[in-house]
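User: Fold this; tokens only.

Assistant: Input:
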Amino acid sequence: MTPRRRTNRNSRGPGDVIFEFSAIGNSVKVSAVDSRTGTEVSIVGPVNAGESALRNNAMAKLRYVMEKRNPVPLVSRGTFA
């Protein structure tokens, strides 16, 4: 039995992500949609880049866009002069 990964529903990162691959000539358009927020991003890469590389790039862009829309607040501890 494989262990299940625990996800925090209150986190600001992407939840379940849906990927769509569309071949356009020598390029592939990859769309990534966060199912919780509906945030969608897309990238274009070469056909021979490989599915995992394209998926990782689309996921990185999705995380970037979501962090930019909802930045994590800076936690200050202690006294600053």
